[in-house]
Amino acid sequence: MPRTTVYIYAEESGESPVLEWLKELSQSNTRALDACIARVRLLAMMGHELRRPHADMLRDGIYELRARVGNVNYRLLYFFHGKDIAVVAHGLTKEAKVPARDIERAIERRRRYEQEPAKHRATLDL
Question: E strand or H helix at 17, and its extent?
Fold first, then answer.
């Protein structure tokens, strides 16, 4: 199975909401950060083949990477661009369902990415 290239979504300004969220995790809960990074690595290895319990389809081409540390659920929302590229668009902590507004935010980020991929890419050194 070929490795999937994983990018992190970035705004045109270069700011990345996901990288900021991960940076906050690194300061508050390193176990949660490690769990989220492990899921991103798994996505890179398995791509479209990644399934529950590590990932799940939400709707409209938006998927979630699933990590749990203690009683807290961490989610990284992502989408695929082409055959071998996945883009992590949003990170959140949740209690029940992923809120619709977070899915909508990921859909909007996918739309921007698809229009100009090179302007909306950041990387996460794994």
Answer: helix 17-28
Calpha distance 69→93 (Å, rounded): 11
User: Residue 77 forms beta bridges with which residues?
Assistant: 64, 90
| Cα dihedral: 77, 18, 93, 104 (round 10) | -50
pLDDT tens-digit profile of 97-114? 999 999 999 999 999 999
Cis peptide before 117 (omega within 30 of 0): no
Is 31 in a helix, a strand, or coil?
Answer: helix
Per-residue pLDDT reduced to its tens digit, 51-64: 999 999 999 999 99
Reading the block at residue 87, the tokens are 């883009």
To the question of pTM greater than 0.85 for the whole model, the response is: yes
| The pair of three-digit structure tokens given for residue 123, joined into one six-digit string | 């990387």
End-to-end alpha-carbon separation of the chain, Å?
19
